[in-house]
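Moderator note: this is an archived Q&A kept for reference. The question asked for a predicted structure of one protein chain; the sequence and the answer are reproduced below.
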Amino acid sequence: MESTVRLTQSQYLGQQARHLLHRGLFLFLFILFQIPFLFQPIQGHHRFRQADTAAVARNLAFETFDPLRPRIDRREDKSGIVSGEFPLYQMIVATGFSVAGDYDVVGKLVSLLAAITAWVVLTELLVRRAAIDFWAAQAALGSCPFFFIYGSRFMPETFALLLAVVALKYFEAHRRLGGQTALWMGTTTLSLAALVRPYAVFVGLPLACFWIGELRQRRPGWKYLAAGVAAAVPFLLWYYVWWPHLVRVYDLDYFFGGEFFLISLSEMLHPAFWASVANTITKFYLNWLCIPFAIWGAMRLWRVKPRIPGVGLIAFWLPVVAVPSLCLLIGTQFVAHEYYFLSLVPWSVLLVAAGLSGLRNWHPRLGIATCVLVAVLTPGLFWKHYRSNTLLAAYHPVAAEIATRTRKDELVLIEEVDPDDGAWYLHPIRRRGWIEPRSRLYERAHVVELRQRGLRWVVWYDDYVYHLSDVDTWLARLEAGK
């Protein structure tokens, strides 16, 4: 009798292990692929944007916790205050910095946890609400380039995506059950998503559809109007009231809207513009490997959309509304900022998942093999986005000297070697100050002016490595070199 019980327990544990493997295989692979990038320094794709994001979090943690006036490390002739998205993500990372210390892995871990949670929420929506096969849903997420590229980036993209898909989940719950709690929870998370990244606002499309549905029934739909206004007010206050205020007071750059619409509209009239849009969306959201499945998925979803409420909205209306609207706002900036199309992630994974689900229904074993194959091959297509920065080696000889000789509140001037790296130059040394090309470092009058603004140290590049000098020694060297 005892042996029978032990055997049953063993069988039960084996079943549980197989069930766990079945449910978590693709997520496990995703995490496994992200681990090497989680622990490497900030480098590769968008490294200067990551450096600025890390700087805002670090300055919130160690300089002044003022989220209304976020500060980057690059000070130029200003205070370091920058106009940008509301720093909710950076505030969370700053809390982690206060506990664990100033390590890149803290911010990257926040991004990875957000990506994992968004993955779980999207899986639930795909499987339970869109009748997608579980393996197909997981494979679609595992092959989505956006998840691989931004899964462990020191950027708020995955956090904004998490808030966006949680809003979609609440809106779907409200559509099915009609509860007010779900409506206002969705409104709140949508508002936060738009604050973190303004282009996430398009996931609020269900709100517009709820209101239109009320109008069709000759009802004013006041609750949906109120929800839409509640979601929009924080967004409008931050980007159209507070941000312009920072621009006026601190003499910052401002490009959010305005006459930029006319430039964008003229760009949109060229066929090459839309070819570039199609390439960006395909490469970073659909995945070239998954195009056949996305097409098949669109065909299947078109047939079933009358039977599955909400599917047509995401599969067809979301890109129709989001893509032209975004293009009007950003013009060709999406070429360098492909994450502007973040709100298309639910659409892209839905199409690919529907296609893979059709393959699973037609031939289960071939479907499983294909699901695993596309999820495993995808990282190979985008590994280059994590390319190491060769300039990191130039910091090694001087890093210890900077840590011991300089204080963290002292401003430095560092030589810029490659203009494309932008704000990244200050990040490896965790200091604030100025980034200038070599010509400016050797202008004595310019260095004297910076010293009057608080400059204390000069980090200059020679013989493929960086060197440290205090500003007085550097000025004496420039004087002697006349």
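Archived answer notes: The longest helix spans residues 2-38.
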